Amino acid sequence: xxxxxxxxxxxxxxxxxxxxxxxxxxxxxxxxxxxxxxxxxxxxxxxxxxxxxxxxxxxxxxxxxxxxxxxxxxxxxxxxxxxxxxxxxxxxxxxxxxxxxxxxxxxxxxxxxxxxxxxxxxxxxxxxxxxxxxxxxxxxxxxxxxxxxxxxxxxxxxxxxxxxxxx
Length: 167
Fold this sequence. Notes:
Layout: E1 3-12, E2 28-31, H1 37-48, H2 61-68, E3 73-80, E4 83-91, E5 97-105, H3 115-128, E6 134-140, H4 147-153, E7 157-166
Parallel strand pairs: 5-6
Antiparallel strand pairs: 1-6, 1-7, 2-3, 3-4, 4-5
């Protein structure tokens, strides 16, 4: 029997809608100002492995480089006690709609209370990027069980959902 996967598309159209969680003293979040495609590949696998992220696994080094070295693409890494706790990528190819392209925590840090603070940082960074008029993200029912609730708690609203049959 096929299982259904529901994809949720969420958006925020004003920075005033952000319901931020306060930053945590034990979580340092740093922008990777020098693009490193191999780092993005590693982060994608580290965070996405538990959730079946596979759409970019077959990408070549050149494809990773083409994505990460665009001026419309930015990456932040969260550290806890020197270890990578999570990351997020912002992508804004049209100069006004910022997508949280990838977001998540490393497996060792799930359930530690870092998700709300990291997502708040991601949304703040998107709104601080001059020209942003809208921030959006998508998630699905196969993601971490708290993902959708975290997005909504930070002020993002579902504007579309789609059901896909999975084999």
